Every structure is written in C-alpha cells, then in structure tokens.
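Need tokens for this chain, all 209 residues.
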Amino acid sequence: MQHSKLPAVLMTILAFLLVFNQWQLESLHQSMVGMNNSIMAQQTTDQQTAASPQESNDLVVLAQQILPRGVPPIYGAELGVSFDDPAAAIPILSRYEQDTRPNKLTGEKLERYIKIGQMTSCEFCCGAKTMVFPDGRKACGCAHSAAMRGVVAYLLDQYGDQATDQQILIEANKWKAVFFPGPTTQKFAATNGLITAPTQGLQQQVGGC
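Here are the structure tokens for all 209 residues:
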C-alpha cells in the first residue's frame, strides 16, 4: 500500500516545485522590469538635465553645456583644428577665406558664400553686422571673422554638394561661440531668461583681433 501512494506523493511534490519555480521566474521577471524602468527613468532624467542648462546659475557650468567641444567631424581632422584650442585654429581657418585662398570661389559657391556670410558676424569684437559685403568682400578685418569666413569657404569648396547653407552657418557660429565664450554664454542666458551668477571663469575673447 505504501508503494501505491508513492507516485501520488511524487506528483504532489513535482506540482509544488513547478508552481514554486514559476513563482520565482515571475518574481525575477518583475524585478528585471522594475530595474529596466529605473534605468530608463534615470536616463531620461540625465537627458533632461543635460538638455536643460537653465537649471544652472553659474555661467561656467552653463558654458560647459552649450559651447562646442572636441574635434569637428570630418573637416576638423582634415585641417587639424579643435574647438578645445580655438586660438590655434584661427590662423589655420583664416587661410581659407575668399580674400586669402588662392583658388577663389566662383559661381553658385560664391553666391552661397555671400548669402551665408551676410547671415552672421563676429559680433562681439567689432560693430560689423555681417562677415561679408553684398559683393563678397570681407566686412570685418578681425582674425575671428576671417576664421569664420574660412570655415564657410572651406566647407563650400569641399562639401558644398553635401552640406546645406544652414549646416555651414551653424559651423561658423560654433567657432564664434568658442572665440567668445563669455559673451556667448551671457547672451544665451539673457535670451533664454536665465538668472546667472557673475563669474570671472570665462574668457571674453580668445585670440586677438
């Protein structure tokens, strides 16, 4: 009789183990879901923090969040320039502006050079409102403006069929930002209605005019 009860006991134990294992798997699954949700929430928080520099009242911290850093993709390596060393980049980039380059831009590229050059200026070191006049001549003789014009001309010459005017304009303005880190950060703060603490930690100008 004892032998006849053995299969029933084994079946009961097996059923219990199956239920227990299923419960463990479900608990593990819930734990993993909770962990993933926690990680995703933290990532979202990190992204929001990085995208919301207005939370800072320190211009140095704000500058670290909005100013470009590192080597610009493609042309940075080609020319040996980096946003981290803007002073060294000025004489390199200046060689490529229309007034200096041996192979002048012509036709559509020249038209685009003029169009882009009239959409921005060095702004913080002189009173020039644009980088070029309507005929393509430089509107400002400072080194910063020459470097910005050099970026525009180089990208039009080498990548004009790939880059839009807006993309090239953005690259020129990135260099303006690192040439004038203090004024750029202060303007960003004022434009976005931020209250920032005064600081002496940012240069007003990199390189001479």
